[in-house]
Design brief:
Layout (H helix, E strand, L loop, with lengths): L1 E2 L3 E6 L3 E6 L4 E5 L1 H11 L13 H9 L3 E2 L3 H17 L4 E6 L25 H12 L6 E6 L8 H12 L4 E9 L6 H4 L7 E7 L4 H7 L9 H12 L6 E8 L7 H11 L5 E7 L16 H15 L24 E4 L4 E3 L13 E2 L9 H8 L8 H4 L4 H4 L4 H9 L11 H26 L11 E3 L22
Helix pairs in contact: 4-5
Length: about 475
Amino acid sequence: MLWSRYNTLFQSPRFGCFLYNALTNTLLELDLAHYEALELFRDGKGSIEVDAVNDGNFLTLLRRNKVLVESGEESRLLLARQYQRHALCFDTSRLGLTICPTLQCNFRCPYCFEHSQKDSTVMTPESVERLIDFIKSYKDIRHLSIAWYGGEPLMAFDVICDITEKIKALSLDFEGVGMVTNGYLLDQQKISQLNQLNINSIQITLDGPEEVHDTRRVLAGGGATFQRILANVDALMNSDYEGSCAIRVNVDKYNAEHFFALRKALLERFKGKKLSVYAGHVNTSINHAYDHSSSLGLQEWTDFTFEMHHKGGHNPAGGFFPSGNLDSICVATTHHGFVIGPGGEIYQCWEDVGKSQMVIGNINNEKPITNPELQAQYSIGTDAYNDNDCLECNVLPICGGGCANKRLRSKQFGEKGIEFCSPYKENLTSFLEEYIDAFRSKEICASVLNPGMQRESRKGFWDISPEKKKPAEGARPGITAIAQE
């Protein structure tokens, strides 16, 4: 038996001894005797079958959770994981579209990654018909998901209504629809139509309290936006809208300190409503006109994540235990996932919108896909399981390779200053300690509320991982996730 490269054996000054394995995403708590025996085995100084831990149940637990592996076993397991990723990438049962009815925007946010805010092109009726033909050409699909994006999509609201009506006439399972909007044009008349348009999630951005937001998210002709957006959110949350609203706060060094007060105020204002508030990472490229040095680096962003928890009780999505898009699947990596621009141009990633060199085709062409090489670069070229550096990393199985767009720009296009590695790489034990803290608190609460409860029998080792939930039937990650606005 060999010590897995994906093991992390550590002592927490606060909580004791632990062993984490990234292949199985399992966390074991250990007594000192078991910890020291594993430490000796890891360092090649002893056998695992010593008197202190000579327990068949312990060895079985280590084997089952891939702490101990046979020669070549990890390579086979990673190959199976890669196969699963490819199966998801090339699934033909679903079509996921991000549609930009216009690239025009009524805002001039300085950190915006788009280069086409002044482009007044709106999707024409002819392009709408070609879009419907494009959808119908995928004859094997059974499920369709849509995300409305831009520019500012509400500047072409009539196009959204037209496309939705035509899609509803198709014999498809029209799945959840999301929208990314700055919220300025989300008036009562549009709110009243959201349910009919199948829009069940909306993202709106507020970058801080009024005095901060209005210096960052300004109208194209100049002018404040905070009060009108907030009034529109009020109207949305007090309407018969059945979906949810996520308030995104784009955070960098200039406004990070204001996030906490804004989040608290919004959650109090909309208590009991289906509204959440989260921080978005402003991460501009080196050549962007916005000050690149203002972006929080990977470690700074990780520190901010912990600060959000300690100061505001705000946890990352899924909590602190490693979770998320472990296969690194998103619209950019899927064979049936596309971003459609107002002229019918097709992209793989919404961060490429407006960049002519990143177009992979056009729905108006007889053969829509004209740049399959770029498609392959996104799907196969960004596969972390083909990257020797990633294969040597002890958090690969819980990282999945990170953002495909960032990997592509860094690894294949040579763009400098891009950080795409997972925060787990340098901070795994810190994330686990936060999870352990929460786990211990739950145990204490349970014992106080149920004083007669029998505690699980423990013999120096026990699994404290969260229950591994199976994905819902037919679930597929990453297709209509809301992106940066």
